[in-house]
Amino acid sequence: MKFSILVLGAPFSNQAAYSAYRFVEAMMETEHTIHRVFFYQDGIHTSSALATPPQDEHDLYEAWQDLIASHKIECFSCIAAAARRGVIDAAEADRHGRPANNLAKGFELAGLGQLVEAMVVSDRLVTFGK
Amino acid sequence: MPTATLHTLNKPESHAELNEELARVISPDDALLLLEDGVYQALRLDVTESKDWSALCEHVYILEDDLHARGLKPPSNPNSTVISYLEFVKLCVQYDKIVSWY
Amino acid sequence: MTNKEILIVCRSTPYGSSNAKEALDLVLAAATFDQSVTLLFSGDGCYQLIGKHQSERIHSKSMERMMSALPVYGVDNIYIDALSLKKRAINPELINASAQAIDTDTIKSLYESATTVLHF
Asked: C88: distance to nearest CA of chain B, Å?
């Protein structure tokens, strides 16, 4: 079966991004596939390259990046939700004259159409809310 | 053909209206997964006189890591099962859709 | 794209959090992609439908105006939970006329017939 995952909460603020991470990790042990992970609302913070947990805490940001890299998982953050909250890529930084960009490796910015497509094309959508 | 839904719930009882709305919608063929702070609702599963989720749906599942993280013990209610993330994935396949309540 | 039945349930007040706006953004995106979208207002979401917003007073986009665009996008199935209205002492006359008040059984059938359900 083809799954898509929707993440609505930011790492650390609540468990949404963590539970989603554990779920996706578990999926890798099955024959089912992940079509897309979509980060919306505060979930977009998962795609920040600048978030820096303390050394003695679990780095969920790095965990997501490793998971994405190891299994080639398609991860999108909603471009509008991310921009509002201060996560932008190089193209957006350029377009809006911002001093820096901070989208983490393995993530892409996309419109809500990608979430709609994920809902339509997937057999299952699992939402992790805040 | 009527569908059977896996509902997920990540909040404790204090989120009264969230719980009420889920109770209004959940069907006897549906299942409920308690995860994150929702695992606190597992405490009520072993209190005999109180009405709990096991009376409203087919089965109550509880995510084991969230349960143990919070110092809680698996309930003995036979209509409940403590599960892993892998089993959570398998439940998603078994049910027709997943509706998350948060 | 094959058609799915998407049910979006708005349970949050407008303006106090981003939930209402981000729900509507998704509703409009789904409608733009020709998906069948049903919108249900329940719990605190009912407050969204009280009319005559002066949102500019808090430097916000009007949720009311966004909602008025829904029929233009082909989103006609707009419902509101009658019980939530009653619990909040909201006079049904205050509510945007495009939303139809429905009971618990109807809400249950909306959840059952949808292929995807999201809460905001």
From this structure: 12
Domain of A91 in residue numbering reads as: 2-128
Collect all residues of chain C within an 8 Å Cβ-Cβ radius of residue A80: 25
Each residue's pLDDT tens digit, A21-55: 999 999 999 999 999 999 999 999 999 999 999 99
Q: Which of A78, A81, A104, A109 is catalytic?
A: A78
Terminal alpha carbon distance of chain C:
25
Overall pTM surpassing 0.95 (yes/no):
yes
Report the CATH number at residue A106.
3.40.1260.10
Ordered domains of chain C (ranges, CATH): 5-119 (3.40.1260.10)
Count residue pairs from A and B with Cβ separation < 8 A: 50
Give the C-alpha separation, A127 to B101, whole Å: 9
pLDDT digits (tens, 9 = 90+) for B18-59: 999 999 999 999 999 999 999 999 999 999 777 899 999 999
Does B92 contact C at CB distance below 8 Å?
A: no
The CA distance from A10 to C29, in Å, is 23
CATH class of B5-101: alpha beta
Active site residue A78: yes
Q: How many CB atoms lie within 10 A of CB A101?
A: 15
Alpha-carbon gap: A19 to the closest alpha carbon of chain B (Å): 8
